[in-house]
Amino acid sequence: MKSRPDARLVYSTGPGRVCPGCGFPANACRCKALAASRPAAPAGPVRVARQVQGRGGKGVTVVTGLGLPAAQLEQLARELKQRCGSGGRVEAGVIEIQGEHRDTLLAELVRRGIAAKRAGG
Predict the structure, then answer these.
(1) Please, which residues have CB within 8 angstroms of residue 77's CB and are 6 or more apart in sequence?
(2) Which residue ranges does the chain devote to CATH 3.30.780.10?
(3) Dist. CA 87–CA 79, nearest whole Å
(4) Is 49 exposed, middle or buried (0-12, 13-18, 19+ CB in 10 A)?
(5) Cross-strand bridge partners of residue 64
(6) What is 46-118's CATH number?
(7) Residue 44: which residues within 8 A CB-CB, separation 6 or more?
(8) Contact 68, 40 (CB under 8 A)
(9) What is the pLDDT of residues 57-103, one digit of tens each?
(10) Three-state DSSP state, 80
């Protein structure tokens, strides 16, 4: 009996662990290559909020929940800072832009195809 090349493995004692996504042995998994070629999806809901805590009364606009790799996050932060005409930084996966720019950032993120919501009052 011949096996089909697209048939998934049901049970075998030979290859060890089998990937549930592609059905290949874990050490030859094809899901990893597919996942690396796809752009990363946001880890959770993307929120745009304003914070003043611990900043001496100076407000910053905070973008959380993007879930992008560090290089892409830095690039996005740079473009958002240029769009707002102000400074900012990236720390622990959170983009902080100096000043009150919630509406501008929200519009820019939606324009880029990122489903973002305004958080806070």
Answers:
(1) 88, 89, 90, 95, 97
(2) 46-118
(3) 11
(4) middle
(5) 47
(6) 3.30.780.10
(7) 65, 67
(8) yes
(9) 889 999 998 888 888 899 999 999 999 999 999 988 899 999 999 99
(10) helix
